Amino acid sequence: MSPIAVSFMALAIILAGAFFGTLLRNTLPGHYLADDSKDYIRLGTGLVTTLAALVLGLLVGSANSSYDAQSTQVRHLTANIVLLDTLLEQYGPEARDARDNLRRAVEPLVKRIWREDSLEAAKGTPFRGTALAEDAFGKILNLSPKTDLQRAFKDRAIQVATDLVQTRLLLFEHPDSSIPMPFLAVLLFWLAIIFMSFSLFSRLTPINIVAMLVFAISASAALFLILELSQPFVGLMRISSTPLLNALAPLGS
Fold it and tell me: Are 248 and 79 in contact (CB under 8 A)?
């Protein structure tokens, strides 16, 4: 389910809780909402509010950390590709085929990470390197250095290529969502209880209705932000693939 759909579902559940509180207020006898009951319910709601606030804060922080980590991995991947191409260029013209395959492997890599290919993005699909990437790595391994300098460039290129593959695996294995559905259901239940308590002891005047809408939209927007940050390669807040696509200039003639 998309983050927008989840946030709208959360908004509907929160508003339903608020209107259920109004229904209870109009249905229950007056003595059920006396001062003792009011204090008891407000204390309980305060506890639930504290729990919900802590959980939302932790989820936002966790999702933001995950987003930053994957953004850093993309930058690291881009830097390794540029460094690998530079090492191969310094090796000499014998590495031209490997450099050419490296350039042609970038676009399929971007499509897999950013899920632009629906077949590759299917859940449960095992990771497989593209033929171009494997061929580029094979050509680097098959280089036959003639000088100590070329040998040093080849050894360093192999190290960078290995690091590049490891980073690519980490990006491929990123999770789809940071909020399990049972956890989300409990969080929405807490939010519905909180908003139900708002309308249980207060009449829905026009100003209260506006305030309730603002608060409900804010809570559902927080869930939208968490889900968007936990899916950094799709959606409205996706990490840009342009730097990676433009990392290598075309080989000259």
Answer: no
Q: What is the pLDDT of residue 253?
A: 44
Q: What is the pLDDT of residue 118?
A: 47
Taking residue 27's Cβ as centre, other Cβ atoms within 10 Å add up to 8
**Strand, helix or coil for residue 252:** coil
Handedness of CA 181, 58, 69, 114 (dihedral sign): positive
H helix or E strand, kind and range, residue 191: helix 181-200
Per DSSP, 247 falls in state S
Q: What is the DSSP string of 187-251?
A: HHHHHHHHHHHHHHSS---HHHHHHHHHHHHHHHHHHHHHHHHT-TTSSTTPPP-HHHHTSSPPP
Which pLDDT does position 122 carry in this prediction? 45
Mean pLDDT by groups of 10 residues along the chain of 253 residues: 88 92 79 72 87 89 88 92 92 90 88 66 56 83 90 93 88 66 88 88 83 92 89 86 86 61
Q: How distant, in Å, are the alpha carbons of 92, 97, 153, 154 from that of 147?
A: 11, 20, 10, 11
CB atoms near residue 210 (< 10 Å): 10
Cα(25)–Cα(137) distance, rounded to whole angstroms? 70
Q: Give the separation between CA 9 and CA 14, rounded to whole angstroms.
A: 9
Per-residue confidence (pLDDT) for residue 21, from 0 to 100: 86
Cβ proximity of 18 and 195 under 8 Å: yes
